[in-house]
Amino acid sequence: MTQTDWRQLLFDQDSERLWAELYRLILHHPLVRSSRFIYNDSSVISQAEMHYDLTQELFLRLFQKGRFQYYLDVGLTDDEIEHEISHIEISNLLATSIRHRYPESYRMARRISTLLQTSKRFRRFNTVANDANHESEPVASNGKSARYRRDQKMIHKVYGLAEWPPNKPMRDSGRFRQMIESVPFRNRDTRQVGCARNTQVIISNKELERLLVEIFQAIDSPTDVRTMRILALSKLPIQDIALTSVEADLVFNNGSSRRSQEIADVRQSPEEIVMLRELESYAEHQAKDLVNRLKKAVNNKPRRFARLLQIAWHCYFDPSRPSQLEIAEKLGVSDSSVGDYRRLFENEVCKLGLLAEQGQVFNEAMRKILMEAVGD
Q1: Which of 90, 227, 271, 333 has its CA 20 to 30 A from that of 53?
Q2: 125-159: per-residue pLDDT in tens?
Q3: Rounded Cα distance, 165 and 169, in Å
Q4: Burial letters 55-87, b for 16+ CB under 10 A, else e
Q5: Which pTM value belongs to this model?
Q6: How many Å apart are CA 206 and CA 121, to the nearest integer?
Q7: Which residues are 341's β-sheet partners?
């Protein structure tokens, strides 16, 4: 019987105490204690953080659905309120989390349970404790048996092949993994089903039934539904895709962890963008200043200045990269004249005193000016 005065908490609208009581229910709920696998293995979430997140999500769900006011309106007692939250709301919350994070595994687990219940190839066994050796002796249920627990959870129910005798002994489940190594892995059935035609079959019911039969024959023992789910899923091509932070620590199933590497942001910062614009403006100014220097170096003679720009273009910016002899032949001048104009251009560039980081921007600005000058 609960000691929490839920109705008074709801009347007082004491959100802090209400959150604390919900945290208590989360902390002691049997499904929560065994469901850390809901969260992706690569997440760095701790057990305490998981409880905080589940409590916060539970609180918001109850508030958004108006359940707090509903409990007061219908006059539920404190015991009824706690039973409603613990056995219905928390269970639904966990089921929703599992379905969203592991959609295919969740769907296949439901199909396996349904098939064990409905197929004529299987039947349910009842276990009776053996005081002598602390083992379980399966007894097939026929009609209404006093030892048959009808309120037993589905994952704890024991099933086996219908052809087996009622007193078929149960084996140690710890060796089942090795015993089913001979059972072949199934290929994925990629046929699309569902209302939106966006869900793959994975495996048909007929083939799934055959897989369960092969597993039972391999282990030669009845087993509970939870164990059968694990064994069957290990033979199916399940694709559960979950998103996780790239900066999260990697936590593996054996408990070990590895610090993730922070991914560098290759995008330019606002400061770098401003500095690049200033650099481009300065480079354009330097390119125009170089052109004026070159014009003065040839005494402002248009013919010599045009030839100088042509030689500078072919020597440094022409995509075909011609040799000095090819440039001389193309322009109709001597090889020595090309060399003289080239040294003149290089001397004027050196006088600018450009830094290494300015070179690329300056070259682009100069390329545009020479391209317009030579008409290429």
Answers
A1: 227
A2: 976 533 333 344 444 444 444 444 555 678 889 99
A3: 9
A4: beebbeebeeeebbeebeeeebebeebbebbbe
A5: 0.53
A6: 11
A7: none
